Prior knowledge:
Blueprint: E1 11-14, E2 19-23, H1 31-35, E3 37-44, E4 48-55, E5 58-65, E6 67-73, E7 80-85, E8 88-92, E9 97-101, E10 108-115, E11 127-129, H2 136-139, H3 142-149, H4 153-161, E12 168-170, E13 189-191, E14 199-201, E15 205-210, H5 218-221, E16 224-230, E17 235-241, E18 247-261, E19 267-274, E20 278-281, E21 286-302, E22 309-311, H6 324-331, H7 335-343, E23 351-352
Antiparallel strand pairs: 1-2, 2-3, 3-10, 4-9, 4-11, 4-12, 5-8, 5-10, 6-7, 6-9, 8-13, 14-15, 15-16, 16-21, 17-21, 17-22, 17-23, 18-19, 18-20, 18-21
Amino acid sequence: xxxxxxxxxxxxxxxxxxxxxxxxxxxxxxxxxxxxxxxxxxxxxxxxxxxxxxxxxxxxxxxxxxxxxxxxxxxxxxxxxxxxxxxxxxxxxxxxxxxxxxxxxxxxxxxxxxxxxxxxxxxxxxxxxxxxxxxxxxxxxxxxxxxxxxxxxxxxxxxxxxxxxxxxxxxxxxxxxxxxxxxxxxxxxxxxxxxxxxxxxxxxxxxxxxxxxxxxxxxxxxxxxxxxxxxxxxxxxxxxxxxxxxxxxxxxxxxxxxxxxxxxxxxxxxxxxxxxxxxxxxxxxxxxxxxxxxxxxxxxxxxxxxxxxxxxxxxxxxxxxxxxxxxxxxxxxxxxxxxxxxxxxxxxxxxxxxxx
Length: 356
C-alpha cells in the first residue's frame, strides 16, 4: 500500500459574514477517498448561523472551541434545541437536519468526522441546504412552492426571492433564536471533558471512549470515537485496530511525534503532528505517538461503533501472551534478552510516562 499518509490542514470552502466552513479534500489526503471518510470544520462568529441542512454522510460532531446552540431534527420527531460547549460530541446520522448558532463572543468551532460510503463523492461530505441561495427553496419555481405549501403567489414569490447567503449568515443582534432545553441533551450529547475516564494513567494520559453505551446514536452512525490527552513526554503504546477499522485523528491541541508501520514492516509515516492536523491510519497498520513537552490532545473516529484495539506493548500487549520459547525463536534473541523484554512494562498499559 503506497499512499501518502502525511497529516494535512483543512482548506476554506465557503463563508464570509458570520463564519466559515473548512474541509479536507480527497485530492490532498487520498486516504479519505480510499477509506470513505469525510472531515470538515465549522467556525462561527458571534450571531453566526449555519443554515439548516442535511448530509449524505453520517458524522460525529465535536466542539473544539466555544459555546452555542445546535438544532437537530431526527426523522419524524420534533426539533431538539441543544446548548453545546467545548468537549461536546454529537452523533448525526445521514439525512438528519441540523443547524448551528453562536450566541457568544468567543468563536464557536465544530469538527465533523464521518463516513462517506453512501455519499455522492467518496471522501467528501455533501450538504443539502433547506434555505439560502444554494438551498432547495430557491431551486423550485414560485408555482411549485405555492402548490406544495398552499400559499398565496406573493408569499411564495417572497420565499423564493428572499433566500440569501451560502451556508452561513449573520443574524441581527436583536433576533431571538430558540432557547435550548436541558432535557434535549439526554442521549444526544456526551461531553468528553466531563465523562468518566476509560483509561487514566498518572503522568501518561487519559482516554474517553464514545460508544453505544454512553452515546446510543453512534450505533446509527456506525462510528466509534475517542478523546485522548497525552501528557508531556509520554508515549502512546504501539497498537492497531484488530477489527478492520480505520482510525481518523484530528489534533486538538499541542504537538508530538508519530510513527506508523504498515505491510512488510515498512515505516510509512514518521512526522510531527501539530494542532489542526488530520491524519488517517489504514486498517491493521500499527501507530504510536510521543507527545512534546507541552503534551498533545486528539479526537478520533473509528469506522465501527464499538472498536477493539490491540496493544503491542504494556501489560496488555500481545507479546505477553506468547510463550518464552516462541519469543526467543521469533525474535531470534537469547533467553536473557527475552526475559528482560518480557519483564518490562508489567504495570503500564496504553500510556507510558516519560523516562526519569
